[in-house]
Every structure is written in C-alpha cells, then in structure tokens.
Automatic annotation (TrEMBL):
Alphabetized UniProt keyword annotations: Cell membrane, G-protein coupled receptor, Membrane, Olfaction, Receptor, Sensory transduction, Transducer, Transmembrane, Transmembrane helix
Organism annotation: Echinops telfairi (Lesser hedgehog tenrec)
Transmembrane intervals: 24-45, 57-80, 100-118, 138-162, 201-223, 235-256, 268-287
Protein family according to the UniProt entry: Belongs to the G-protein coupled receptor 1 family.
Keyword Transmembrane annotated: yes
Protein name: Olfactory receptor
Amino acid sequence: MLQNKSVTEFILLGLTQDPVKQKMVFIIFLVFYSGTVVGNLLIIVTIKCSRSLGSPMYFFLFYLSFADTCFSTSTAPRLLADALSAKKVISYNECMTQVFTLHLFGAMEIFVLVLMAADRYVAICKPLRYPTIMRKQVCIILIILAWMGSFIHSIAQIVLALKLPFCGPNLIDHYCCDLQPLLKLACMDTYVINLQLVTNSGVICTSSFLLLMMSYFVILHSLRNHSAEGRKKALSTLTSHITVVILFFGPCIFIYTRPPTTFPVDKMVAVFYTIGTPFLNPLIYTLRNAEVKNAMRKLWYIKIAS
C-alpha cells in the first residue's frame, strides 16, 4: 500500500507488558485460538460431508464457521506472536491489512447472522412457503450479497484509515490494528473520521442487532400457534442464535457506537468478540444442536470403520 506518512511502523503494546502475564496470555489464547480453528473446521467438514445437514440453516452455519475462523485468524496469530516477542512491531502495510481483514470477516459474520435469523423466520412463520422462498439458488445469492456488503464495508474502513496522517508517536495501546486506537495517534482532528466510523460500523452493528432482536421477537410470538414438540425444537435453535447474537453484538456496539474516547476495558472487550465469540460459537451450535452432533458421530463412525 502506498502511504506518505512519516511513521512506517507501529508498536503494539498488547494486553500486558508484564513478562509473566505475557506467557499466560500466550497459553490462554493459544488454547482459545486452537479451539476456534478445530471447532469451526469440524463444523465446516461435518456440514460439507453430511447429507442430513443440507438445509439452508446449515448452509449459512457453514459460512458463519468460515467467517469465525478467518475473523479470529485476523488477530489471534499476531497476539500470540507478540506475547513471545520483546518488541511488538507491525509495519504500516501490515497494520492496514489487519484493519481490512478484521472488518471484512467481522461484517461477514454480522450479515450471516442476519441471514440465519431470516431463515428461521421463514421456517417458523411461513413453513408452507419455506422450500420455495429459501431454495438453494436464493441462499447462494444471499451469501454473495453478504460477501459484497462485507467487502464494501472493509473498503470504507480502509479508506478512513488511509486518510490518517501519523507523525509520531507510534505506540498503539492495543493488541491489534483497528481504527479506534489508530485515531488516537493521528496528527489531525479526527472528529469527522470518527463520525464516519460510527456512521459505518456503528450503524451496521446497531441496526443489525435491532433487526435480529425484532425478528426473534416475532418468531417467539408466532410459536404460540405451534405444537409443544415444534415449540421445543424451535426454541432450542433460537436460543443458540440469540446467545450468539448477544455475545457478538454487545461488545461490537460498545466499541463502535461512541465518541472518540478510550477506556481501560476496551482491549478486553475487543478480545471477547474477536477471539472469545468465535471460540464459543462452535460449542453453542454443537452442544445445543442434536442434528449436528448426530452428523458428527456418523462421520466419526464411518471414519473409524474405514
């Protein structure tokens, strides 16, 4: 990337400067990241190989797991490497690349969660029309639109980041590059750019969250007309979805919908939604989903038998 800034590299302060705590950070987040990759890849392989998981819900879950893996990978490897490094240096171009990938896969996760909610709405509220509305071609088009929306969002973020002039210092009080910590280092008035950031990321997070909550409220209201068995199955799925939405959107809204101020808790909040939530998603969707667990068992038995 071309840039005419006097600062050509940044130093990430990470989560802690204490050598002992850094080793603890490495061990803890190595477990989290390994669990994220293994858990999400297991879901991806299970959905890809299992004929019983061919419904639109699992089609979207496949892409959620893919987005989770990439989203966590955009920050976790750098956090792990820096935990073992004396000097946590990241070049300007690497920093901008991290901003782009972080928002690309973060936005993709948001849009896929919206699509999953839409799928559940149609399945529960319009069951007779479900096969027609959510046919495979429609699902593919929706995923393509989600990727396009994520890419446009990421381009908007990187354009804002490239506008920032950096004259020094180059210490980022964070474990990754994102617009909020970069705004603190810019040698210019960042009010307008922060307003654009809130308008972009903040509006996407807040509006998507409200849309999801409204859709879940409508779905829960419509379940009154279903049988006890149907309600139980639908509630099991919805509980998983609502849990994921709250865990992901709560920290996102906290980070991206406020004035250009920073709090000591910001880094831990960011860690939760960039590394914690992708780790929890596979557990939530497998432990609470009998179909996924059964499909995994069948594939495991077939693998052992072969």
